[in-house]
């Protein structure tokens, strides 16, 4: 059985997001403070694996950034974000079967934690979105290092600020893990501050897209044709 192009894209996002998010609680319990290393490498692997299928976003902030540079239709944006959040929730539930409900999740329970989360999530989401846009959508997009660049940026960010708030840089990760813990353990208090883990990455991705549009002033003609073909799917 073969899926259409749109179905393949969504399935690619679901599989890649599921495996990436599954690594987060398992690595956090398995190797503790070194968890950013397997998380970063898994993201690199999933990016190399599914980039040709869906663009390998696995992150609503990336999808938003790609939309802001005019490379995605709004309908596909909604489908990608729904797929990413659903896959993240499934990954959290699956991880709970393996290690139980006592899993880490990005959260901000105090005013100081909210402030730190807004600052760190926005700046490192900006970094991740910038790397994605400049490595996968610019004139240098036909390279062999994009997966490593993206994964290592997440690894660096997680090692730098993960101890403050969990270092998600990804609204799907925060949504899936917080919803999963709410369903499984009844700890629903962090959901009151879930907006922080959407607003900050969205702001960072928007800034990344603005700087991308300023810096990459002459995309190649074949890139414009590819984008026109993608957008035409919904017209």
Question: What's the helix and strand layout?
Answer:
Elements lengths: L4 H26 L5 H19 L5 H9 L5 H26 L11 H26 L9 H20 L5 H15 L10 H20 L5 H12 L3
Helix pairs in contact: 1-2, 1-4, 2-6, 3-4, 3-5, 3-8, 4-7, 5-6, 5-8
Q: Biggest sheet: strands, sense, closure?
A: none
Number of domains: 1
Q: Oligomeric status of the shown chains?
A: single chain
Order of helical and strand elements: HHHHHHHHH
* CATH-defined superfamily: Glycerol uptake facilitator protein
- Any low-confidence stretches, pLDDT <50, length ≥5? 228-235
CATH architecture: Up-down Bundle
CATH topology name, in short, is Glycerol uptake facilitator protein
| Silhouette | globular
Measured between the Cα atoms of the first and last residue, the distance is 26 Å
Helix/strand-derived category reads mainly alpha
What does the radius of gyration come to? 17 Å
CATH class label: Mainly Alpha
The chain-level mean pLDDT equals 90
What percent of residues adopt helix (DSSP H or I)?
A: over 70%
Strand content: under 5%
Number of helices: 9
Instruction: Give the number of DSSP strands.
Output: 0
Pfam families: MIP
GO molecular function, one term: water channel activity
Main location: membrane
GO cellular component, one term: membrane
């Amino acid at each position: 059985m073969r899926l259409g192009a749109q179905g393949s894209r969504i399935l690619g996002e679901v599989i890649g997001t599921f495996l990436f998010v599954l690594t987060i609680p398992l690595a956090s319990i398995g190797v503790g403070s070194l968890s950013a290393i397997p998380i970063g490498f898994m993201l690199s692997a999933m990016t190399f694996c599914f980039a040709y299928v869906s663009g390998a976003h696995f992150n609503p902030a990336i999808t938003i950034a790609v939309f802001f540079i005019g490379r995605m239709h709004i309908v596909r944006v909604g489908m990608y974000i729904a797929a990413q959040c659903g896959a993240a929730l499934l990954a959290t539930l699956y991880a709970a079967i393996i290690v139980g409900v006592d899993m880490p999740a990005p959260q901000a329970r105090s005013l100081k934690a909210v402030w730190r989360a807004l600052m760190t999530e926005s700046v490192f989401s900006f970094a991740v979105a910038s790397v994605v846009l400049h490595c996968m959508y610019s004139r240098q997009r036909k390279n062999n290092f994009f997966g490593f660049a993206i994964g290592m940026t997440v690894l660096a960010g997680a090692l730098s600020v993960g101890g403050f708030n969990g270092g998600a840089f990804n609204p799907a990760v925060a949504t899936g893990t917080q919803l999963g813990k709410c369903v499984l353990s009844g700890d629903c208090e962090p959901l009151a501050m879930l907006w922080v883990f959407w607003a900050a990455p969205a702001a960072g991705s928007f800034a990344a897209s603005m700087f991308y549009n300023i810096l990459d002033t002459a995309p190649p003609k074949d890139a414009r044709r590819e984008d026109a073909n993608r957008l035409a799917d919904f017209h």
